[in-house]
């Protein structure tokens, strides 16, 4: 497990001599694609902000990801052949919400 100090050092290196207000954003930053650089920067920020809010050792970095949304959208488009109706979207969101509530229930 990496310490917060490691993330602070890495985040500082990612931001050093980079103008984040530059528009349009550059295609490469520090020898890597802009998307990769931005993704690493966001990961560091998320961990630095969220880890101190949890009990020691309980923070799971995957919980803050978009994986659930990506899976949900993929499942919806697969079931509806990429053309969901408003009713299908509403039903799918409702089913997903119920699933999340059941997962979060500590009494189950």
Descriptors:
single chain; 108 residues
Count helical runs: 4
- N-end to C-end Cα span: 30 Å
Estimated share of beta-strand residues: under 5%
Ranges where pLDDT stays below 50 over 5 or more residues in a row are: none
Structural class: mainly alpha
Number of strands: 2
Give Rg in angstroms.
19 Å
Question: What do these coordinates show?
Answer:
- The protein is mainly alpha-helical and 108 residues long.
- Helix content is 56%, strand content 4%.
- The chain contains four helices and two strands.
- It has helices spanning 4-15, 34-50, 67-79, 86-104; strands at 28-29, 32-33.
- It has a two-stranded antiparallel ribbon with strand order 1-2.
- A hairpin with a 2-residue loop joins strand 1 and strand 2 (32-33).
- Helix 1 runs antiparallel to helix 2.
- The radius of gyration is 19 Å and the shape is flat.
- The model has no long low-confidence stretch (mean pLDDT 78).
């Amino acid at each position: 497990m990496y310490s917060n100090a490691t993330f602070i050092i890495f985040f500082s290196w990612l931001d050093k001599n980079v103008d984040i207000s530059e528009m349009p954003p550059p295609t490469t930053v520090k020898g890597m694609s802009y998307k990769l650089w931005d993704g690493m920067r966001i990961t560091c920020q998320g961990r630095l902000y969220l880890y101190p809010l949890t009990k020691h050792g309980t923070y799971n970095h995957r919980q803050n990801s978009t994986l659930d949304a990506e899976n949900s959208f993929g499942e919806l488009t697969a079931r509806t052949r990429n053309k969901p109706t408003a009713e299908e979207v509403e039903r799918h969101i409702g089913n997903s919400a119920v699933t999340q509530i059941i997962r979060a229930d500590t009494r189950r």
